[in-house]
Write a structure and sequence with these properties.
The chain has a single domain (4-167), classed as Ferritin (Up-down Bundle). It contains 5 helices and no strands. By secondary structure, it is mainly α.
């Protein structure tokens, strides 16, 4: 059975994951509007991935004897200055999620909730991969430049990243 502290913290994490999903959806829409189809596709998939993370935590709360709560949605930004801006915000968001996961891991240890500690290890690894991916994308943008034909190259490369990730 989950302690009330862990249950509340996991429910807060559900809200973070919902916000991340909504944020990536907003980013995808902006990219699609700007003609960045590969990047939009990548971000739509990223939105679905965050939704999957949310459901994983949501179900765990109930399975562990708690009560998962559906959070209110906070509206994410919907205007961005550039593709670089989109991915700077995405990386910042992933770093924030990592920090929240780390706090959950610490809380699970302090409360001696070893089942939750074990459950959260998947998220620790996932966040490492997410931050690495977004840093790599920012490196691609930096190396290619941010305008003209370079933007097409960036869009194509980001579009390929999701395909490569799914193969591995």
């Amino acid at each position: 059975m989950l302690s009330k502290k862990v249950e509340e913290a996991l429910n807060k994490q559900v809200a973070y994951e919902v916000y991340a999903s909504s944020s990536y959806l907003s980013m995808a829409s902006w990219c699609e509007k700007e003609g960045l189809r590969g990047t939009a596709s990548f971000l739509y998939a990223q939105s679905e991935e965050e939704k999957t993370h949310m459901l994983k935590i949501f179900r765990y709360i109930n399975e562990a004897g708690g009560h998962a709560l559906s959070p209110a949605l906070k509206e994410p930004p919907n205007k961005y200055n550039s593709i670089n801006h989109v991915f700077e915000l995405a990386l910042e968001q992933e770093i924030n999620v990592t920090n929240q996961i780390n706090k959950l891991v610490e809380l699970s240890l302090v409360t001696q909730d070893y089942a939750s500690f074990h459950f959260l290890q998947w998220f620790v690894e996932e966040q490492l991969e997410e931050e690495k991916l977004f840093r790599m994308i920012l490196d691609i943008i930096k190396l290619a430049g941010k305008e003209g034909r370079s933007l097409l190259l960036i869009d194509n490369e980001i579009g390929k990243l999701r395909e490569e990730e799914e193969k591995s």
